[in-house]
Amino acid sequence: MGHSRILFTLAALSVVSPAALAARSNAAEADRKPGEATVTVSAEAQPVEVTRTPSPVRVVEADELARLGSRTLAELLEVLQPGAVMSTGTSGATASAFLNGTLSRNVVVLLDGLRLNDPTALSPDLGALSLVGIARVELVLGPSSVLYGSDAIGGAISLTSLGRGAEGFHGQAGLKVGTDGLRGTTAQVQLSDAKGWIAAGGEATQQNNGFPGDAFHQAGGFLRLGAKLGDADLAGFYRNSGQTASVPFTTLSWPGSGRDYQPGRETRARQESWGASLRWPLAPGLVLEDTLQALSGHTGDPDGSLRQQTDRDFRRVEDQLTLHWTPTSAFRLSGRLEGREDTSHAENYYDPSTFSPVRYRGEGRDLAGALESRWTLFDGLDWVAGLRRDAGHRDLTRLDSGLRSRAGSAEAGTWRSGLNWVLAPELRLYASAGQGFRMPNTTEFALNAQAEAQDAQAYPIAPERSRTLQVGATGLFAGHWEYRLEAQRTRIDDLLAYVYDTSFAFPPLFTSHYANQGSIRAQSLEGALGWRGGSDLAYGWDLILRSQETRDLDHNVEGQRYGQQNTAIVRHPFFTGAVSAFLQSKSWRADLRFDRVGPRYDLNDTTYDVISTGHPYQTLHLGFSIEPVKHLSLALRGDNLLQPKLSVQDWLDGRYDQKGDAALVYGFPAPEPRWSLAATWRW
């Protein structure tokens, strides 16, 4: 359709692209059409209409990305699932996702089908993932390990790059300015004809974060090109991004010692990827796809004053080979083989005999096979099922001694099955069940190998495992109303927990390690309702309400069941909601969005006790956009308008501690109120 919007959610719309508005002859009529009717998603091994997959999916396409104005994946996810993103500050700050109440490490991020997760990090940093050059974002909730392997217990976030596009030469360039010294620029071009295509672009942004010595810088770019060779489609790609962000908020060494303000501390993150893909129809109903990617990344975490860094870097080579067989329109089968090799360097851990950092080289190899089938049982009723098996191992080499050892090995199997029933255009029912897993990563295996070398004891670890059940319904009625209702329950067993050294032996033992211990249960109920009306002047509103609980099953007694002893479930709000409204003509649009993230448990940043935040976090966003002349759009945007402006002393004194409007993550100031003005020229 000419108009696309966030699917399966009736989420808030912050900024509109007037160029997209002008292309629609009747905005209100377009808004009344069921958004998921004609859109395909990659929630399964082969693209499928969103109304025919049993997985809960949200989709944002190019015109909606422009409208929302989200710079990073974290900012976009705040709209897709309010309360799911927890950010440790403002621009450039680390941001983690807690999908469906699961852990931040239970989400996998993919670019064009291949994973971006850093093997040296416990969870992906969504605040460092720029959306420049991204034409489509899909959020798939629930057990996605059949397609994506490790980490996809809570869900997967799939990014799709710009591709061929319409024939001819197209592009856009934009400038943005705003409060706190915001300056940014973006540009992208596409050239396409019958023989091939090329797309390229870049961006740069810088901003002060409202505190002395607290700034953010980001830059990145991409290049994609493709050609048709006979029946085969061949594409090549390159992408890079990097950012530097100050992290002046820290605590002193010992619990209870208080906070410290160190404006010289900062983080650095960089990621680069390149590769090629092939899609080749071998015969009628038989298609071969192969994608090869090389990915590298570097992260510098703050570790003291004056820019002292704890550096980590990794390099990955991955190949994904898929064969699709569609003998009839009612049945299809896909088989996939994946191979991946990771190499990483880190300086995260210390030799207890010298108290000096140990630099190590970690090597990981993973191999996986998967099968997924789809069968149309009868008109409107589809059954999807899949199986997957993964195996991998990690090797560790101490660079000071050259000693190499097998850090660990693990295997995991997973399955998924679901039914999707379209009873009528006004009602769709779906249900799915599945099993997921998270393979221990390089960091966890490496630390345990160091502990074994010091203590002469075995510290084996196994994958975390989960079981999930989901049900849902979507539809529309009376020509103006849309609704969605979803419920899910996930149980995660064999949680990998960090066990601290409590031996107090001398000489000290290195008994700190990871161990499989504990289970949690996450369950949620989410409902959304929206209304559209108007003709030349369209208007509407949307409401999302979500109630969830994440419970520690090992300490299921009063006062402990929500995590007093198991901190794996902190930062999971019990209730979240969002309400939005819009008013739009053919040349302008105004938007409002109000989010409320309910009280939750978090870690006290000085005592490390699990505490309740006590009060909700509330924020307001406003947007207005207009197309004064053809091809030129202007967008004014206000974000975080309910947040108080904090001074450094306010934070040091804890003036707003446990007051939700002062922080989203305990111990870090909330994003401050900001305004920005963006101008975009399209041709």
From TrEMBL:
Domain of life: Bacteria
Entry keyword annotation includes Nuclease: no
Main location: membrane
Residues covered by the TonB-dependent receptor-like beta-barrel domain: 234-641
UniProt keyword annotations, A-Z: Cell outer membrane, Membrane, Receptor, Signal, TonB box, Transmembrane, Transmembrane beta strand, Transport
Signal peptide boundaries: 1-22
Annotated TonB-dependent receptor plug domain residues: 51-156
Membrane topology (UniProt): Multi-pass membrane protein
Subcellular location: Cell outer membrane
InterPro entries listed in its UniProt record: Beta-barrel_TonB, Beta-barrel_TonB_sf, Plug_dom, Plug_dom_sf, TonB-dep_rcpt-like
Family in the record: Belongs to the TonB-dependent receptor family.
Record's protein name: Vitamin B12 transporter BtuB
